[in-house]
Amino acid sequence: MVHPKILEVIEHDVCTACGACASACPAGAIVINKRAEVRDPDNLELYEQGAAPYVCEGCFTCGRVCPVIDGYYDDEFANVKSFFGAKSTIVGQDGGVTSHILKELLRKGEIDCVVGISRNNVWETELVLMTKPEDVDKTTGTKYTYDSVLEALKEPFEKYNRIAVVGVPCQAHGARLISENVNDKIVLIVGLLCMESFYHETMREKIVPEIMKLNVDDVVKMDFGKGKFWNYTKDGQEHSVKIAEVAPYARHPCHNCCDYTSVFADISVGSVGTPDGWNCVLIRTDEGQRYFDMVKDTLEIMENPAPPGLDLVKKLAKMKHDNNSGHYLEVCEKFSFDECGIR
Questions:
Q1: Which of 55, 102, 151, 302 would you label with 19, given CA atoms 20 to 30 Å apart?
Q2: Structural class in CATH, domain 200-247
Q3: Can you name the CATH fold of 5-70?
Q4: Distance in angstroms (rounded) separating the CA atoms of residues 122 and 253
Q5: Pairing of strands 125-130, 113-119
Q6: Where in the chain is the domain with CATH 3.30.70.20?
Q7: What sign does the dihedral 11-67-73-263 (CA atoms) show?
C-alpha cells in the first residue's frame, strides 16, 4: 500500500496537530495526541485489537487538508481588504472582538455552532462546541497552549450546516482546506495572530514555575507584547520576561510555520498595532466582510489606528518568516513529494 503524505510530515516532526486530517478522514484512521498518528493497515495488531474499520484505506484525503503539505504564502497581506481597530464590552484578552463576533452571530442565528477552546484554572485546554451565545463566555482570552481544534469538527459536520471555526494560523489554514476539498459546512473562519504556541506540560512545568518563577494556579492571564511574555496574577501583579527566554520552548512545528496573521481566515484578529484594550482586525474575504457587517454596529471601531498600526503587524510577520522559512524549506527538501513550499 502507498502510505499517505502526512506520514512524512509526522516523521519529520512538523505536524502542527491542527486536527484537519482527523476530522476529514472517512475511515477514522487518524488520531491526534501531540501530533497526528495514522493507524496502519499493514499492522496486523490493529485488526487483532478490533480496530479493523479504523485503519487507513489509502484515499489520501488527509494530504489534501494538511497545511504543511499545502505550504505558505510569501505575502500574508495580499488578500487583506481592510485593517482597523475594534473593541467590545466583553472582557477578553484585549478588545474581546473574537468572542463578540461569535456571540452576536449565534444570537442572530447566522451560524449554528462554533468550534473553539476553553481552559480551566490551571491552563489546561479543552475543545468546546458552542451552540448558544452564553457558551462563548467559557472561551474568552488567549490560551497560548495548544489543542487540536479541527479534530472536534467530526460531530458538528453530522449535525450542523453553518459552522464557524476560530483558531491559530495552522487551524485556520486546515479549516480552509477542509472547506475547499472535503466539506462546505464551514461558513466562517476567524483566525488569530500567532507567533508560536506551547504544550501545556511545558507551560505548566517549565515556563511558568522555572522561568517566570510563579505558581501556575495564581496566573489569571498570559500575553505577549512589547518584546516580553507577560503573566498577570490573582494579586494584581504583572510579571514579564523577554520573549527570547521562552521562545525556544515553543512546539517544534511552530518553528517551521510561516503564517503569522492567519492568511487563510475570513477575518483575522489580534492585539498588535492598536492601543491597549483594542483588537486589530483584518478583513480578508467577501464572506468575512459580510459576517462582520452583521455585528459591526455593536462594536466600537477605530478606522485608522495610530502608528505603528499595520506596519507593526507586517514587521512581526516578516520576523516570523525570516526565522522559520529556512527551517520549513529544509524539511520540504526531505519530502518525497513537491507540493509544499512558499508561493
A1: 102
A2: alpha beta
A3: Alpha-Beta Plaits (3.30.70)
A4: 24
A5: antiparallel
A6: 5-70
A7: negative
